[in-house]
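Let's study today's protein:

:::
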Amino acid sequence: MHINTKCSVAVHCLIFIYEYGEKTRVTSELLSRSTGVHAVTIRNILSALKKDGILFVKYGTGGATLRRPPHEITLYDICMALEPDFLSKLMGIHDEPSPLCPVGRNIHGVLEHSYEKVREDLSESLRGITLEDILSEYHQVHPEGPDTDTL
């Protein structure tokens, strides 16, 4: 699963946990049904979010709640929790350009400067979007609020 998919699934889970976590026991099976993603993948995502201090997860009996308030959780935090080296993997440079070619000899240094700028810009953008922002958008689309009867 690519980081962008993991991130969207994690955000889906966090919204679900925020909306329903205090009203019902949010388990990986319940999140699996909501996301359409296998429960094992959900457990791996929840584990990573727990390890990074974003979630509190009760194993055994099940249940997950946010450990930090939504305004303190950024997309950057979520992505880093799921894949700490995602920024360095974002744009790779081919491994073995020809050392005999002037372009091949210099391409790593040339591209690395530009790619670093992209990574910095993305990092800044991800830090500027909080779970609270995303929840606000969710509530604009779904203004009725949580409905535990349909779970």
Observations:
- The mean pLDDT is 91.
